[in-house]
Amino acid sequence: MKLIDCPRDAMQGWPTLIPTSQKIAYLNALLQVGFDTLDFGSFVSPKAIPQLADTAEVLNGLAVDASATKLLAIVANVRGAETAAQYPQIRYIGFPLSVSETFQQRNTNKSIAQALDDVARMQELCARTGQEQVVYLSMGFGNPYNDPWSPEILGEFTQKLDALDVRIVALSDTVGASIPETIAPPFRELTAAFPHIEFGAHLHTTPATWREKVQAAYAAGCRRFDGALGGYGGCPMAADHLTGNMPTERLIEFALGVGETLPLDLAALGKAQELNEALFASH
């Protein structure tokens, strides 16, 4: 089971700016924990996400060589991907491809068709740089806009991504709409139909519903999970009231409970949690 911690998602919608030095200290603490991947920042318009305008500066302060954890940066277009591609420390370039036409326009000011063209161009870029693209199917468990959604639609999107040789696809619960009945069928069908693709779950949740969501994805074959320590954050482009991220500590609890072996340094995790609490409590 792979754990991806997403401090980028925790910070991006935070109402007050977090100093760059504090971000660097927190991310360096997370790099010592042993997560598979750290979703650390994004190369997007600073007007859209001012909290992450310092991503390049933050990256330069990270002790990447002292950690086995891989770095992932989110981008919203080819220009952002070209910026991320300049940094060999970044292993993964993540792109949100929405299955909701409304949200694709809202999130990236493009149609789904235009976004798919971007995916193709970014895939070619990654082939040249040796990086790897992670495509997030946002609104992956339904949407509040009455746009069409079904496991079959997710399958159609995945078929297109498969044709582009995308090998990591994460179903993303952008607004906390997921319930076990909408989580299990897509993972069950997709993992069977595309065994060569690694499927991930980027779930948002309330404190009372986290376990049933993780259980549904895990039982249906998902072994890649995104979380954020403390459950902070959410997508500022999705709603006025953010639904929190899946708490990483809950994912750890679940994984250990089902017998998964996690290469985590629990002492380092404790230090990262202390910094997490101080970081968000003070801002």
From TrEMBL:
GO function terms (MF aspect): lyase activity
CDD domains, per database record: DRE_TIM_HMGL
Domain Pyruvate carboxyltransferase span(s) in chain numbering: 1-262
Keyword line: Lyase, Metal-binding
Assigned protein family: Belongs to the HMG-CoA lyase family.
Stored PANTHER family: HYDROXYMETHYLGLUTARYL-COA LYASE
Name of the protein described by the UniProt record: Hydroxymethylglutaryl-CoA lyase
UniProt organism field: Hymenobacter tibetensis
